[in-house]
Write a structure and sequence with these properties.
alpha/beta, 12 helices, 33% helix, globular, eight-stranded mixed β-sheet, 338 residues
Length: 338
Amino acid sequence: MSSPIVTGLMAYGMSGRVFHAPFVELHPGFKLKAVVERHEKKAKADLPGITSYNSTDELVNDNELELIIVNTPPHTHFDLAKKALEAGKHVLIEKPIAINSAEVKELFELGRKMNKHVMVYQNRRWDSDFVSMKKVIESGRLGELIEVHFRFDRYKTTLSPKVFKETKGLPGNGLVYDLGPHLIDQAISLFGKPLSFKKTTGIYRENSEVPDYFHFHLSYPHQLNVFLTSGLLIAEPTPSFVAHGTLGSYLKNRVDVQEAQLDNGIWPDEPFYGIEPEGEDGILATFDEGGNKQTEYIPSEKGDYMQLFEAVYDTIRNGTLYPITAEHIAWQVELLES
């Protein structure tokens, strides 16, 4: 194996501790050298030997770093990723990569100019529930698809303590930019760019200033309709992954366990990491030639965010095309900013 990719994290809050550090630390192709902690210095308790910088400027100016993970609030992604690229670093940027198409275009053009990779962290492509649905769709057992639904629902009446998520007028706020990139990316990864789309948003929580509900209707060739929905006042969620085709239907709850496991200190090298609890199988309903309905329970695939970091490694060291392409991101931001 080539020398490890020396990596730095721009923040060590929840996302740094849960979604990034465990994977960079465990993957032999990376060396996690430094994080930015402006206030409390907590990283050393989890990662002995880590360097903790007081500012993003200190991190960017570390000449040993080859890759910087931009995991700060969304409205800062563009400026910080641009600064890292100009310093000669590859970047892995949390969703959303930027607020509008002009910023996205500028970042990818700067990456090409600097001969550095611009990669976006879309971890939900490796959720157990989504991977399970994808496998069923690609098997052809549903026939020609008619409609597909992706939902990401929660019930949270109180406003988030993260001010950047709730402040009106602050770029990249609200549920559209928070959970929208996950659902849009899942749809694009399966079906590509839609022929057309319609977008609906709403504000329902008391004292909320930003959208806490959204719905996209994406239209694809062959009359395929894809619906992306998310709300923060959904008390009893329906199945989050639903696909209806000419030969059958598939239904699956959103039950990927990786975030909860990581937040509880369970790292990806544990044997039960990413494995859903029993009783959460997907349901596949089909009809046989005699018109009799058949119901089958489909065991779930294992969730594995390490696959994203494997893709980052292969992109930087082996020149492999990163699976979340510049086109995918351009299409995503087109929907977000509409």
